[in-house]
């Protein structure tokens, strides 16, 4: 897995200390993280505050390095984009990246964990893009993760 600095350099983007710190936090997380969870992970880095993390997350999403996932608690979660799996609109639909990435998310309704499921991807017929301006695609599976299942069965 590439480092945050390598990913930004490969994309011809300028890495900064805050950008590298936030992106490395997402790279090293097996699940999607909320702003609060990222801020908590970066606690102790004096140059990084709440507003800086928001700005970096927006910048990383605008530059298609991460994607944003809605969660049941109305907090956005963020996950590293898989370079092979990012979902781009056809040129005829809109310019740039749709506000998503075209794969499914597994949401644990007990602990709030969100995982990307790249094997389950959106397959949108071209006719949809020819007639409808798509701005977002979300595929969500909701249930309980293995940890929460085992905790409940142990009770």
Number of domains: 1
Structural class: alpha+beta
Assess the beta-strand content as a share of residues. 15-25%
Low-pLDDT segments, ≥5 res: 84-100
- From the spread of the alpha carbons, the general shape counts as globular
Class in CATH?
A: Mainly Alpha
Q: What is the CATH architecture annotation?
A: Orthogonal Bundle
Please give the largest β-sheet: 3 strands, antiparallel
The Cα radius of gyration reads 17 Å
Query: Secondary-structure element order, as H and E?
Result: HHEHHEEEEHEH
Mean of residue pLDDT values: 81
How does this model look, in words?
By secondary structure, this protein is of the alpha+beta class. It has one domain (4-154): Orthogonal Bundle (Arc Repressor Mutant, subunit A), CATH 1.10.10. It contains six helices and six strands, in the order ααβααββββαβα. The strands form two sheets. A three-stranded antiparallel β-sheet has the order 1-3-2. It has a three-stranded mixed β-sheet with strand order 5-4-6, with no helix packed on it. Strand 4 and strand 5 form a beta hairpin. The longest helix has 13 residues, at 50-62. It is globular and about 40 Å long. It starts with a helix and ends with a helix. Residues 84-100 have low confidence and may be disordered.
Keywords:
alpha+beta; Arc Repressor Mutant, subunit A; 6 strands; 3-stranded antiparallel sheet; 155 residues; globular
Q: How is the secondary structure organized here?
A:
Elements: H1 4-10, H2 17-27, E1 33-34, H3 35-41, H4 50-62, E2 66-69, E3 77-80, E4 103-108, E5 114-121, H5 126-131, E6 139-143, H6 146-154
Parallel strand pairs: 4-6
Antiparallel strand pairs: 1-3, 2-3, 4-5
Helix pairs in contact: 2-4, 3-4
Keywords: DNA-binding, Repressor, Transcription, Transcription regulation, Zinc
Protein name: Fur family transcriptional regulator
InterPro entries: FUR, Fur_C, WH-like_DNA-bd_sf, WH_DNA-bd_sf
């Amino acid at each position: 897995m590439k480092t945050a600095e390598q990913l930004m350099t490969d994309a011809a983007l300028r890495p900064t200390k805050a950008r590298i710190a936030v992106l490395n936090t997402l790279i090293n997380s097996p699940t999607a993280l909320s702003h609060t969870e990222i801020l908590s992970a970066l606690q102790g880095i004096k140059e990084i505050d709440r507003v800086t993390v928001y700005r970096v997350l927006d910048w990383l999403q605008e530059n298609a390095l991460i994607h944003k996932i809605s969660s049941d608690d109305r907090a956005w979660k963020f996950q590293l984009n898989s370079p092979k799996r990012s979902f781009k609109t056809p040129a005829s639909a809109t310019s740039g990246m749709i506000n998503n990435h075209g794969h499914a998310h597994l949401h644990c309704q007990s602990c709030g964990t969100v995982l990307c499921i790249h094997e389950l991807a959106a397959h949108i017929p071209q006719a949809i893009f020819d007639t409808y301006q798509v701005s977002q695609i979300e595929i969500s599976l909701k249930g309980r993760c293995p940890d929460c299942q085992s905790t409940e069965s142990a009770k």
